[in-house]
Amino acid sequence: MKKIAIAAVSLFALAGVAACGESATDKAAESQADAIEAQGEARADSLEAQAAQAPTDAQSDALDAQADRVEENADRRADQVEQHGGNADGGMTTQNTPTQH
Q1: Nearest to 71 by CA among 98, 52, 35, 43
Q2: pLDDT single digits (tens) 12-49
Q3: Is 13 inside a domain boundary?
Q4: Would residue 98 count as lying in a domain?
Q5: Residue-range definition of the domain harbouring residue 22
């Protein structure tokens, strides 16, 4: 009976340690997500710069709207990448797993 109790305590301790650290998959997913967000932001910034130089308000508004969509899509894709990375280890490390919107 004592051995079972010790084994159970050890199992809970190991699960706690595993949940505290990020796995390599989590880190890779987070890095990839950061790159996706940065690329989306850079593209959005370029579109916003074009909007500032647009000859008409309609063109400027269209470019600004496109910039917003580009950034939203990049954020959504980055969240998906992080979600997949957080679940790749069976949910043992979910501290960086974003919630689904």
Answers
A1: 43
A2: 444 454 555 568 888 899 999 999 999 999 999 999 99
A3: yes
A4: no
A5: 2-87
Residue type, 95: Q
Q: Say if 24 falls within a structural domain.
A: yes
> pTM (2 decimals)?
0.64
Query: How far apart are the two ends of the chain, measured CA to CA in Å?
Result: 46
* 66-84 exposure pattern, b = at least 16 Cβ within 10 A, e = fewer: bbeebbeebbebbbebbbe
CA–CA separation, 11 and 28 (whole Å): 27
Quote the number of domains for the chain: 1
Task: Please name the amino acid found at residue 38.
Answer: A
CB atoms within 10 A of CB 96: 16
Residue 23 has φ and ψ, to the nearest 5°, of -80, 170
Residue 95 within a domain: no
